[in-house]
Amino acid sequence: AVEEVDAEAAALAKKLAAYRGVWVFVEQTEGEAAKVSWELLGEGAKLARALDVPLSAIVIGEKVEHLCKEAFAYGASKAYLIDAPVFKYYRTEAYLRAVNNLIEKYKPEIILMGATGLGRDLAGAVATVVGTGLTADCTGLAIDDKRNLMQTRPAFGGNIMATIMCDKFRPQMSTVRPHVMAMPEHDPQGSGEIIRESCPVKEEEILVKVLDIISDKKTDQVDVAGAEFIVSGGRGMMGKENFAMLQELANELGGVVGASRSAVDAGWMPQERQVGQTGKTVRPKIYIACGISGAIQHLVGMQDSDVIIAINRDKEAPIFEVATYGIVGDLFQIIPAITRKLREL
Ligand code: FAD
């Protein structure tokens, strides 16, 4: 029986060892890459170093070769390029077949994708077809002493952080939300090898046809996720009308107004402004939390901000545990006072 177990373990180790390299899927729309792809190259570089394997980019689209060069500037040493009209717009079936073909041929041990609408769709489809695991919405990635990827993400409504491992299948797949990982350095001199792959899909095989793309002009255009200065309000704001006070402060800073889920649920701010586990992940230079208690589901969305300033009348509020500067007091006095001071500068 011991021999059988040993033989099984050896067979598994052999199967896993056939997979090598860290891949990052470069998500693009009309030739423009999603920033999260570069953030993932930064993170992927650390994993590739720990494993002593190459870091590669997967670039799929129409007329997207320039993105391979960008990937080299952000640290990739190889780029697998599939460039064909059938990939002009994202369609699950076409992209799935392209990625699947690359995996079968080159056998990477890790694949990272952005936890965007597109990334979530594609990663789930790929993992299902390949027959491997997928950890969604990771906030931390590391390599253990057995070369497994340790994937950390909030679980049970954000009440615990779970570390998940896929130790019996390859590739190991994770999605990571935008802004969770820091942007790597951009080196315009960075170079690498482009591996051109032929297109494995014919247009007539794809059931979904894109007839037209209509942008939704009604959505809130303010980009909370990409803002450098955010003034966020929570239930402590007491009403929609009081958010004007936060907007005034945000204007002085050249920033935007965000919100906790309570404020969004109360109808005081639109959902696009929500920060946290079920909202946006943000990484601004300054995050000012006003009347926000600091529930874990809020913290996971903003705790990597460079500077956090918390204003709360309850000195025991958990927000103060992550705050760089804490102000205990009534926000209705403190916020206008800060805005006034900034105007004097
Ligand atoms: P509260 O917790 O009610 O805090 C209000 C704070 O305002 C208090 O600390 C109070 O002391 C302070 N205050 C009141 N009046 C004043 C005043 N005059 N001056 C100064 N301070 C004052 N939450 C999110 O934010 N984002 C998410 O993405 C998110 N996702 C979730 C996902 C799940 C699955 C679950 C279960 C919950 C999620 N939540 C999320 C909700 C989260 O658990 C909290 O309920 C929410 O963050 C609380 O919002 P709040 O801090 O605004 O309100």
From TrEMBL:
- List, in alphabetical order, the GO biological process terms annotated in this UniProt record: fatty acid beta-oxidation using acyl-CoA dehydrogenase
Iron found in the keyword field: yes
Swiss-Prot/TrEMBL keywords? Electron transport, FAD, Flavoprotein, Iron, Iron-sulfur, Metal-binding, Transport
Q: Which domain of life is it from?
A: Bacteria
Q: Does the keyword Protein transport apply?
A: no
An annotated Gene Ontology molecular function: iron-sulfur cluster binding
Q: Belongs to which family?
A: Belongs to the ETF alpha-subunit/FixB family.
Role description: The electron transfer flavoprotein serves as a specific electron acceptor for other dehydrogenases. It transfers the electrons to the main respiratory chain via ETF-ubiquinone oxidoreductase (ETF dehydrogenase).
Name of this chain's protein = Electron transfer flavoprotein subunit alpha
Q: Which organism is it from?
A: Geotalea uraniireducens (strain Rf4)
